[in-house]
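Reminder: ligand-aware prediction takes two inputs, not one.
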Amino acid sequence: MKCCACGKFMAAVEGVTCPKCDRKSHRACVKIPEGVQVQPTWLCPDCKIQTPRKSDQNTPVRGLNSENIIKQGEEKPQSPVAQGFKESELALELRKFREELRETRQEFRSFRQEMFDLRNSIKSC
Ligand SMILES: [Zn+2]
Ligand SMILES: [Zn+2]
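Here is what comes back for the chain with zinc ion:
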């Protein structure tokens, strides 16, 4: 018998049983303390992932329709991602510009310092 959370061997008596797939997991793997009864609504990590979301449950017809819904869902995020990429590029340019500005400012400051030193040396002469 294998734990369905970590895949390692476990004894049949230990662990918790998933009510859906009837597989067992180490208590430690599913974070259920020793001696605590598993809730009837509890599912193993695998079943939790596979459990359809509420929006999917509302879908009346399975098959082609649900496939279309998945495809639409996949296409939708593409444009915001592309926009986000452009924005991040712009932000990167801005950051570069700012860094250049800072460098220019530092150069100017050192230039002023040089002028100051020069003036001091002239005075001392
Ligand atoms: Zn385990
Ligand atoms: Zn399960």
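The longest helix spans residues 78-124. Residues 1-52 form a domain with the Herpes Virus-1 fold (CATH 3.30.40.10). We will return to this case in the review session.
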